[in-house]
Every structure is written in structure tokens, then in C-alpha cells.
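Budget justification note: compute hours in this period were largely spent on complex prediction jobs such as the one shown. Inputs:
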Amino acid sequence: MTETIVSSTLAARAETAIKIYGHGDTEVHALRGVTVGFERGQFTAIMGPSGSGKSTLMHCMAGLDRLTSGETYIGDTTLSQLSDKNLTLLRREKVGFIFQSYNLIPTLTAKENITLPLDLAGSDGDQAWIDEVITTTGLGDRVSHRPNELSGGQQQRVAVARALASRPEIIFGDEPTGNLDSRTSAEILDFMRRAVRELGQTIVMVTHDPVSASYSDRVLFLTDGQIVDEMSNPTPETVFDKMKTLGD
Amino acid sequence: MIKTTLKSIRGHLGRLVATAAAVILGISFLAGTLIFTDSVQKAFDDLFATVFETTDAQIRSTETINAGFGFEVRGRISETVLADVRAVEGVAAAEGFVQGTATVIDSQGDPIGNPGQGPPTFGFSWSDDAELNQFTISQGRSPAGPGEVVLDANTTEVGGYAVGDSVTVLATSGSESFELVGVAKFGESNSLGGATTALFELRVAQRLMEAEGQLDAVSVRGEVGVSQQALVDAISPVLGDGVEAITGAEATADSQDQIATALTFINVFLLAFAGIALFVSAFVIYNTFAILIAQRTQELALLRAIGASRLQVVGSVFLEALIVGLVGSALGVLFGVLLSNGLSAMLDAFGVDLPSGGLVVGSSTILVSLIVGTMVTLVSAVFPAVSASRIAPLEAMRQSAAEAPKPSKARLAIGAGMVVLGGIALLVGLLQPRLDLAGGGVAAMFIGVFVLGPAIARPVARLLGAPIARTRGVTGKMARENAMRNPKRTARTAAALTIGVALVAGVTVLASSLATSIEDVVGQQFVGDVVIDSGSFGPGGGFSPDLTRQIGELDQVETVASLRVGLAEINGDGDFIVIVDPAVVFELVDPGLLEGQPADLTETSIFLLDTKADALGVGLGDTLSLRFLDGVIRTLAVAGVYEEQAFFGNYTISQGLYESTGAEQLEFVAYVQLADGASVSDATRAIDERAAAYPNVTVQDRQEYIESQSAQLDQMLGLIYGLLGLALIIAAFGIANTLRLSVIERTREIGLMRAVGMTRGQVRSTIRWEAVITSLFGALLGIVLGLFFGYAIIYALRDQGVSSFSVPVVPLAVVVLLAAVIGVLSSLLPARRAAKQNILDAIG
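Corresponding output:
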């Protein structure tokens, strides 16, 4: 894990990322020097037991939280140097998000939710791309409905579409299917995988579900704030076996 | 359950602060008013008790005329009574006093004080009996002869004078110069309740007040061992008809009562605004409780699910309201003390030196404030509490607190019905006139709008937000959606502002219409070229008829006609009367005579206003009995009826008649018709020269005079705006409060927006524009209501010469703009809070 990372093929990376919460007796080491890179056009899953630091790693890489030391990059941009305002603009333009729940603004229609980051930037975006993204959600007419008129799966598809709309450098998902039943979950994960394969997007997803992880190209395993292993072309079974050895 | 409630209060402390703030603001005004008037009353009571301490009996005329509003004048008695009283056994000393108007001119040549608009300008005779004299010399010596004057300490200072200076004093007899030989204090105070006082030797005072051979009162000191009542009993037999003796205690009580009556009007005026502040506060308190309870619906439902009864749920909200109400009211009383100090300081700055006796925070003030504040809070909390307890536990646990159900048709019907009925009540109340009905109508309309609000808030907010949504991009659109998403909340939040704006708009429309009407009437009825105006209405102000005579002698002047104002009892009721010279006045002023001819106004006849004639049921040929201060009842023939009140008031009599009553003769205003070919500027200069001896008068040309007639309204308007400002401040608190609660409710939403790229500035902007839309909604409703209020009052006054309904567009636009500014200001803290929220905490 010490090879030099070539930035040009990486959508995002972290170098000796350390994150410590609290002080003195209550100090918690969430990340203990993580160095990792995410290649463009790849679907990566980050797994690990709860408290392993997987969410912290994602938050710090996405510019939602700051490291105690070390560095994270989106493309060539160094995140630690950015002001809150520039971090916000970076998230708006270069990062997409899919959260576990409460992904959509209840007062906006599905379509308005999808274009929200673009609207916040005051940009029209690439209209052909947006149309393509909206088509892939399969919502049809329902894109002009408000979130409370959509099913949980439809809402999550809108969230994925929003993450795609501005063609970000990278998309982060925080247990994006954690609240869905297995059938809907499969549908969303398939949608995400198509976004990577067919639309050339980069997605990093935090999950603790081996089945979800099996949709990715590469799985990273985190324990106690450190990357302990990784796996390519995972299946639910290989991931499950690996997790057992990590003691979750 | 009590424990749960207390825990809940602690948990929601931040949210309750703003509710308490509304209680505090409303109650502080109420308490402040009560404390202020109590303190002033107490100070005056003490003052009069001190002043009359050594007076065992007072002798005075029985003739009084009461014009209402605590305005009373008393007749004079002959000074021969003095010798008779001094001869009575048991009398140790008796001193006569004369009282009148004497305006002091300061060292710059300007009059000090204006009795028409402020405290009186007194002239008194000086008494050498130190125990009977209300004043004490603090510098120099007492006035001993002609050409000498003593001023109160405050007037001396304001006028820029020192002992030995020459002082010009304007009295009934005209303007004269005196040497300032001393400075006096009234008890411990530097002035007599802010009035200016000039003291003269008795003979000088009698000449200046045109009271030769007369006295206003005689103060008597009894010998040791003679009771006050015994003294009065001994004196009474030597007094003639129309003269009475009262004990010192009665004189004290009498003076105290008069002040109390005068203070009552200030009190009622201020209390009306305290009531408005409380009414607005009630809306804010209601709204806060409604939101708090909506946010806690699930918590309350959980309590219900685990076995709490409906009564217990309502009870817990009640207990919370009780604590907030009590604490808020108690703090309100404390703030009231500060406010009352502020009122005193404000009056002090205006030169009203009220006697200082310390603040009086009576137990009744505390009790009334606590009860009113707590009741308002409880009543405001009861509706949300009951409706919260009605929701079935499971339903409540399912539904999301953020989205309110759609307003019902019943709401629309009830709200509209209340507005219409309230409007009818207002109109009927104004026409009757019955102020309670009119006030009830206004309150019903407000409550109707409050009920109706949620039904119209969504479409109106959509409309108002349209330009914002179009120009401000996604933040503007979000702001509009947020203003529309919970129409109930938007409407209730705006309601407080609606009340404030409605009152401001109503007063503005009313003032503008009155001003236009006055200018129209004056412009139509007054045909002269120049006006000499003393600016002070009623007895005690004005200028000497001597000036009118001098002006009449000028070459440039064709005709001069004056108006005087006096008091009389007409068929038993005291009222102001206007006194004119029938030979000339009709050439300059047209009162719109409906019956009778100008020549019919003689020394034995009277003209009156048509509505007065109707009210009294009299017409040409009937008679009215008038009693003036000389006590003689005169029977006057009704010889004319006119329709315009602007110049002639309710009753008009001739100068000849009024002069025969022996009353103080002072001109209120004089109108001038110029000779052919005389230029206005030339004539004005000549008149100014003559009027130089009367610094209290202004000389204006026709146009200036017409405009100045409505200018007086502006002063009143300023005061009312100032007091209504409080209602707007409370409304701002209400908006801030709602936004704060909404921001808490939307924590996750805001966090999500920040995560996907909303900058802090955009978060603030969204909340700011939401506040602006809410404020504009409230303001527009307020403007509509205000226009109706203004129109209703103007309509009710249409018989009183108020003919024009004028809508002042610019001031109303300013009010709307102000409402938007209030929205922006009240959004500052909630917006800051929202923008600073930690994203991870928010979405976690």
C-alpha cells in the first residue's frame, strides 16, 4: 500500500489521513493514517465494522469534515487549503452525494431536486446529460412530483440522479440502500453500477452489507481507522467471508 | 406529569425565550403606563398636600364652567371680601390671590412654552404671608412694586435669565417689560409641574390679568386651636352670594382630583396602546405555542400512548404556559419600571419638570400585570393544547410535524364571516357612535383575518414570492416554497404584523384624509390674504385685542376680523364658544350659513352648528340659556344656523356680548383682508412689525395658513406612530421566533442543502427572503384592513365636514417597505443560526 499514487487517473485520494475526535481522555482516533486513491470510472465499496472509521473517511474525502492531519484531494484540488465557501463550491461542482435517508428537499419536485446543485450554482448544466440522467431514473412523468408522492426506491433513484446531474468528479454514497428492502435495494445498486459502467462515473460507497458491496468493482476493508485489506470483483460470499475474519 | 413538563420547559428553554419576550414587551408597556401615572399622581398629591399644609380655609367663587377633559374654569370674587374675612374671629391671616396667563419671553425673544400645546404659562400674585404662599424665594427677593417680576427657577434657567435682567412678559393686557428681582421654587420643585410661572405684586397682577378689584381666591390661616371646619363655619356668614369657603383639606382634595382627571386622559391614551401591544403579543404567544406543540405532537402522542390522559396532556401545556406567563409578566413589570423612567426622562427632555417623588410600583400594578400577562399566555396556549390532545396517539406518531394539513372550507367561511360581521360592527359602532362596538368590530376583523389567513396564505405567498423566485434563483424559489409549505404558520406569523400595519395604515389614511378635508374647508371658507395666528386654542393662550386694533389701522389693511375662544355653559353643559365681530367676520370667513343673516348676530343672539341645533332640537326663534363666569344666566335667541365647524366651532356669539361678561379677552386668531393694490409681502412685513411685541403669534399668508392647519395633525401622528412602533417590534419578535423554530425543524433539510453545495450566504438568503414574503403577506393584509378602517372612520365623520377620502400612496408604500425591512431584520439571527449549523450534525 505504499506505491506512489498517480493523480491523473484518480478522482480522489487521501494521504496519511488522521482524524481524532475529542481531547485527552475522551480522544477517539477515527482514522489512523489512511492512504488511498479512487480511480476514475470505478465503483468502490468501503466496508468495515461500526466504528471502523468508514463514514469518517468518506466525510473527510467529500469535504464535509476536516482531517486532524494528512491530506485529501478531489482531482487535483487540496481540500485542507479550502475555505468553507470554496469547500461548498467544490461539493456543488465536483462531488455528488447519496445519503441513507432524507436525501431530497420536500418542497421541490423530483426534477428540481435532481438539478438542485446546478441551480444553486446558477448554471443550466449540460441539458442533454440531464435529460439522459432523468431518463435513466425511469420516473417518467413522476419527475414533476414532490418526494412525498414517490416510493422509497423512487426517492433514492432521484437522489442518485441528483448526484449524477452535475457530472461530478466523484460520487459518495453513505449506506445508500440502508433503508430499502432487498428488491428495491438491488434496483438502486444496479442503477449505480450502470452509472459507472455506462455513464463513466466514479462512485465510492460506504456499506456494511456484503450483498451491496458485491455490486462494486473493488472493496476496501477498514478496521480501527486503518485500511486492512482490499478485494477486486467481489461476490457476496467472498465479502462475507472476509468480514467474518475481521470480526464484525 | 409536572416533572415531565418542567423537563420539557428546560429542554425547550431557547424556544420559550421568545414567547416570554412577547409577554415581557406587552406587559412592560402596561406596567410602565400604570407605574408612570401612579408616580405622577402621587407626586402631585404630595405636592398639593405640602402646598395647602398651612392653608386652613380657602374662599372662592362658586361659579365654575366645566368643558370636560378635566378643563374647568372658576369665576373671580370681589377683593372687598378680604377685609370682611380678616375681621372674622379666629382668622390669623388672609391673603388674596390672582391667577391668569402670563407668557414669559426668553432672552432670545421667543416665548417659553405654548399653553395651546403644552403645560400652562401662569401669572400669579405674590403673597407676603410666607405660610400661605405656595412659592418660596430661592434667589433675590420677592416682587414688591410695579415693574418687578419673580420667575420660577426652571423658567429662569430656560429663558437664560439672571436676577437683575429685564424680562418681557406677555399678559392679557399686552406685553410689558419687568425687572427680574428674584427666583422662586414651588415646594421643592423648580417649576409647577412644567408650567412657567411669573409672580407679581398683587396690584400689578390684577392689572395684567385684567382683574382690577378682583381676586381668584383668598387663602386663610386660622388661629391656633381653631379647627378648619370651625374656621369655615365662622367665615361663611360674612360671604356674599356666589362666594364659598372650603377647608384646606377640601382644597387639597379638589386640586388632587383635578390632576387625577387630567391624568386619566393620558392614562387611557397610553393604556389603549398597551392594549394593542398585548393584543399583538397574544398572537405571537399563540403562534409560538402552536408551533412548539406541533413539533412535539409525537412526543405528546407518545405520552398519550403510554397512558397519559388528554387532561394530563392539556395540563402539561397549561403548566408550561403558566410558568412562561408568570415569569414573563414579572420581568415585564421590571421592564415597566425602566419604561416609566424613560417616559419621565422623555417628558423632562421636553421641559416638563414633573415633581419628583420616586416611582410608585403599587401592588395593584403588579397584580394587574401578572394576572393580565398570565391570562393572555394561558388563553393563547389553550387552543393549541386542546387540539394537540385531540389527535389520536397512533395518527400523531405517524404524521410528520413539518407538513400541516390543508386548511378547510369551514375555516374560509368562519374567517370571512367574522371579517364581514366585524366590519359591520365597526361601521355601526362608528355611526352610533359606540366606541366599544367599533373596537369590538376591529378586534373581530383581526381575529377573522387570523382565522382566514391560512386559507389564503398559500396563493398570496405564491404571488408575492413570484418575483423573488424569478430573480433570486433557487434560493428565491426555496424561500417561496418555505413560505407556502405551512400556510397556517405563515399566516399566524404574519398576523402580528398585520395588526401593527393595519393600525399604522388606518391612522395614516385618516390623517391624510383629515388634512385634505381641513385644507379644502379652510381654503373654501377663508377668503382673506393674511392670518395672525397665536397657535394656541382655548382660553389661556392668544394675543391682546390691542394688536388687532393696531393692525386694523395699517394702510395696507382693508378689514381685520378676529376669533376669540371662551367657555360657557349652554343649557347646563359646558362647551367652548367662538366670539366674533359680526360686522366684519363674515367678509373674511364663510361658515356656510343655512339660516339667518350675518346681521342677525347681536348681543342678545347666538348662532350654532347645524348638528348641534339638531341635537338640542332648536331652530330659529328658539332660545338657549348661557351662563358665563359672571354667573349671570343670559337667554339668547337662536338667530342663525351654519354647517361648517372649522372656524365657528359649535356656538358663536358676538364680541359685544362676551365683553359684557367680564371674561378675559384674548384673540385666538385674526384674519386680514388687504386693501386694493397692497402687496402681500409689504403688508406681512408691516403686520410682523406690529406683532413683534407678541412673539407667540405667527403671521402667515393665505397658503401658508391653509397648510399649517393640517400640520398640527403631523405632531399627533408622530406620537401615535411612535407608540404603534411597539406593536411592530413585537411582530418582529414573532417573525424571528417562528423562523427560529422553523430552522430547528428543518435542520436536516438545511444540512442536506449545505452538503450538496448551498453556501452559507445562500442559506441566509433563503431564510431572509422567506421572512420578507411572510412580512409582505402580513403588511398587505394590514394595508387592506387599514384602508377599510380609515374609510369607515371617514365615512362616519362625513357629517362633520370630513369630506375627502385620501389614500397617501407614498407613506403606505413606505409602510410596506418597512415591513420588508422588519422581515429582513427579524431573519438575521435565525438565518445566522441556520448557516452556522454543522453539516454532519444536521444530516446525522
